[in-house]
Design goal:
- This protein is mainly α.
- It has a single domain, classed as Growth Hormone, Chain: A.
- α2 crosses α3.
């Protein structure tokens, strides 16, 4: 089959946009708290509104993709993202922000479901693993760039003496909400992507029987299996850990160490995601040398150590160790997801949809951290992350996949070369 590298490029661009829109929330958190005079609990409702959309939309989106195909669903997804971003841009209010984030989160969930089968078909099954890694690197790059763009935008809007750009934003953005101007850019990006998808020619995706989403009854039957529930909790805890650190770290640095959230805080959030991408590359090597369960255990222990240093030492150390938490988390998603799929014999498409639904962990964990933070302080609230890390650690102990990741020893490598 002829490879469609234009479509591969488009999918990589979509990954960039998803990440750019999704992972900016941590950098915006301190600004939103100050602008809307929010408690930590009310602040935690912002990521809750975004990530709960994954729980609502992931499985239905899979069914919709099979009925209406990828192109229509992607157009609908960018339309939702555009509507959400435009809504908050026009009415920069806290309650409207919650609705806006839910709409945008729904769009991102639909895109996630649609693009992975497209990537397999467009790039070829034999290249799927390679292009998946490339896509994840692009995803990480966007997460690294997004906070830097926020810093650039706010500092330049503040510093500009007079220009047509500043005049435009001054006219439409409240003076104390300069950061909300970012959502005008999100609306524009979503609209551009909508038109790009509209005028792109899509390949026909022929799903294998095991990749199909399945009926509601299939999902119900899967949820009766202990293995499915345990791995659902695993993905729930992973996303809760990832977002629990990335969302709160800028506010933590501001509250306990006095760092400016727009400059220093945004930069550290960017480095958190940047080192996560670097960690993915190292993970590729490690997975060829060691059992994935052992790597998972090592990653959890290092993440816990770096988190401890971030929370209980000094600001100078925290600036280094918070990004290193991201580095440690980098391999966890792919390991947990692959262990899960390799632990059941059938209905992998439906199981994948259930695992994507578990992304709501990024919503629920924020609520718990924020609630404890309001009562006992943010530092105490972030201790909850040790519980989610502990569960992930347990996966490395009890997981018994039907198929283990293929490793290669030095002796085996030499023998193969001699042959």
């Amino acid at each position: 089959m002829k490879r469609n590298y234009y479509m591969v490029s488009l999918i990589c661009l979509v990954f960039f946009v998803i990440s750019f829109i999704t992972n900016i929330l941590g950098s915006l958190n301190p600004e939103a708290i100050e602008s809307f005079n929010l408690s930590l609990s009310l602040s935690s409702l912002l990521p809750f509104a975004f990530f709960i959309a994954y729980g609502v939309m992931s499985i239905p989106a899979g069914m919709l993709v099979e009925k209406y195909k990828e192109k229509k669903i992607m157009i609908a997804a960018f339309a939702l993202s555009f509507a959400g971003a435009l809504l908050f841009s026009l009415i920069p209010d806290y309650k409207v922000f919650l609705i806006s984030l839910f709409l945008m989160g729904s769009g991102m969930a639909m895109l996630q479901v649609a693009i992975n089968p497209l990537l397999r078909i467009s790039g070829g099954e034999e290249n799927f693993a390679f292009f998946s890694v490339v896509a994840q690197l692009i995803f990480g790059a966007a997460s690294f760039v997004a906070p830097m763009f926020l810093t650039y935008l706010i500092t330049n809007l503040t510093a500009m003496e007079s220009s047509s750009i500043k005049s435009f934003f001054v006219a439409i953005v409240p003076k104390n909400l300069l950061w909300s101007s970012l959502y005008w850019f999100f609306a524009l990006i979503s609209l551009i992507m909508l038109f790009i998808v509209q005028f792109s020619k899509f390949p026909v995706v022929d799903r294998k029987e095991d990749e199909k989403t399945g009926t509601w009854q299939t999902h119900k039957n899967l949820f009766k299996q202990k293995t499915v529930i345990l791995f659902f909790i695993g993905i729930f805890c992973y996303v809760g850990t990832e977002q629990g650190v990335s969302y709160w770290l800028s506010e933590f640095l501001h509250t306990y160490y006095g760092y400016d959230p727009i400059t220093v805080g945004a930069s550290i959030v960017g480095w958190f995601w940047g080192l996560m991408s670097v960690g993915c590359l190292l993970g590729l090597v490690l997975l060829k040398l060691f059992d994935s369960r052992k790597i998972l255990i090592g990653a959890v222990l290092s993440a816990a150590a770096f988190l401890t240093a971030s929370l209980f030492t000094t600001g100078g150390i925290a600036l280094i160790t918070f990004p290193l938490v991201g580095f440690s988390l980098s391999v966890m998603w792919s390991i947990i997801f692959s262990l899960a799929l390799n632990s059941v014999e059938s209905h992998h498409g439906s199981f994948a949809g259930i695992l994507c639904t578990a992304i709501i962990g990024g919503a629920v964990t924020q609520l718990i951290v924020g609630w404890f933070g309001d009562i006992f302080g943010l530092k105490f609230g972030m201790l909850f992350i040790y519980l989610t890390l502990s569960y992930i650690l347990s996966i490395g102990i009890w997981a018994k996949p039907l198929i283990n990741n293929q490793t290669i020893t030095i002796k085996k490598w030499i023998d193969e070369k001699i042959k």
